[in-house]
Amino acid sequence: MTADVAVVGGGIAGLAAAHRLRALLGPGARIVVLEQSDRVGGKLRTVDIAGTRFDVGAEAWLNRRPEVADLVAELGLGGVVHPTGARSTVRAGATTRPIPGGTMLGLPADPAAVADVLSADGLRRVEAEAGLRPLRLDGDAPLGPLLRERYGDELTDRLVDPLLGGVYAGSVDGLGLRATMAPIAAALDAGATSLTEAAARVVRPATGEPVFATLETGLSGLVRGLAAAADVRTGTVVRELERSGAGWRLALGAAAPGHALPDLRADAVVLAVPAPSARKLLAGVVPEASAAYARVQLASMAVVALAFPEGTELPGTSGVLVGAGERRADGAPFAVKAFTYSATKWGRGGPVLVRGSVGRFGDPGALRLTDDELVRVVRADLAELAGVTAGPLDAVVQRWGGGLPQYAVGHTDLVAGIERAVAATPGLAVAGATLHGVGLPACAATGDAAARRVAAHLLAAR
């Protein structure tokens, strides 16, 4: 059919929306992706480091969810690879330990599973949790205070906080239960009377199936494949969105100063942008949704990629998560919240590649450093945690300002309010990491759903 659709935002959600719109509306539709930066892909970026292609944004997708795997299959992309099976570790209580199995983001189905991470007193607190007063949820609950009340500080700080910090770059004390541990909340709603019982209901035995997957030559291949469905315009800022008859007017500006762009008219619009941009663009058309987006806070982070000579020895693990209170032997706090030993995790040959992740919500300290300073402190952390003291062949610093939304208490209700308000506006849909998860499959799913919503509207109006 002939229709004009504008997708605002060229990250994975926006590109997935454009791809699905092309499939649903056919070759006659005019689909434009408007991206204010100089490239599409959002938090997907593959760079050259020491002659090797390497992801410095999201590095993989969760294999048990189908959304990204389905897109890869639709695009005919090959070279899907999985981790080697090397275990992950956590730096807890000044010791590096394997992350225990049998937990849901650190909540144990059986207290014995976490015995090696805790002191005797800490383990006793966890063992006692099932015998505390029955737990009943009344709406959402602040995750950190709930865990500290039921389990104590040790399990919370040594295991749950590092695991959630690796996902959201935030603190367990600032997150809500329902948005970050939905299966646990659902088990409590269904009658579980403790967190331990809830975990026992949702934790499943390991199947041997790989947890993650990625593309051998980097996720930029996925970006290129999805972007082919649309007319992609980078360096284009959408300054205003307003109704124009049965369609929409988008006031455009160039990211580079001194360049004027004409307005764009569209029959339908998908907004796949971070919360601050969504707040601004929705203010005049769906003020309820705009106000809800204004409540979402964002965490900034950086990835420091290091390439070492072949033969450089790494621990025989896939990486290490680092708790917020952990310190080096010299007393300095660790700057990193995680290292991925990519050479070990993915079985890569060639240069020995390592990723250091830096930055937690509310703690911008290390992010204030220059790139060279950041490389130095990350190398010092790596020397302490992995024993690697060799100089790198190459280093890349990728900063992600405002990269991760924080799923605070009440986030699921906030998102329901956004989607309810937008659903009452024909020809408009929203997508992105603010809504239903920050991982690649979750973001792609919101783009797919947004595309189906606006396509249904357009096809019904024929």
From TrEMBL:
<keyword id="KW-0963">Cytoplasm</keyword>
<dbReference type="GO" id="GO:0006783">
    <property type="term" value="P:heme biosynthetic process"/>
</dbReference>
<dbReference type="GO" id="GO:0005737">
    <property type="term" value="C:cytoplasm"/>
</dbReference>
<keyword id="KW-0560">Oxidoreductase</keyword>
<comment type="pathway">
    <text>Porphyrin-containing compound metabolism; protoheme biosynthesis.</text>
</comment>
<feature type="domain" description="Amine oxidase">
    <location>
        <begin position="12"/>
        <end position="454"/>
    </location>
</feature>
<dbReference type="InterPro" id="IPR002937">
    <property type="entry name" value="Amino_oxidase"/>
</dbReference>
<dbReference type="Pfam" id="PF01593">
    <property type="entry name" value="Amino_oxidase"/>
</dbReference>
<keyword id="KW-0285">Flavoprotein</keyword>
<keyword id="KW-0350">Heme biosynthesis</keyword>
<dbReference type="GO" id="GO:0004729">
    <property type="term" value="F:oxygen-dependent protoporphyrinogen oxidase activity"/>
</dbReference>
<comment type="function">
    <text>Involved in coproporphyrin-dependent heme b biosynthesis. Catalyzes the oxidation of coproporphyrinogen III to coproporphyrin III.</text>
</comment>
<dbReference type="InterPro" id="IPR004572">
    <property type="entry name" value="Protoporphyrinogen_oxidase"/>
</dbReference>
<comment type="similarity">
    <text>Belongs to the protoporphyrinogen/coproporphyrinogen oxidase family. Coproporphyrinogen III oxidase subfamily.</text>
</comment>
<keyword id="KW-0274">FAD</keyword>
<protein>
    <recommendedName>
        <fullName>Coproporphyrinogen III oxidase</fullName>
        <ecNumber>1.3.3.15</ecNumber>
    </recommendedName>
</protein>
<dbReference type="InterPro" id="IPR036188">
    <property type="entry name" value="FAD/NAD-bd_sf"/>
</dbReference>
<dbReference type="InterPro" id="IPR050464">
    <property type="entry name" value="Zeta_carotene_desat/Oxidored"/>
</dbReference>
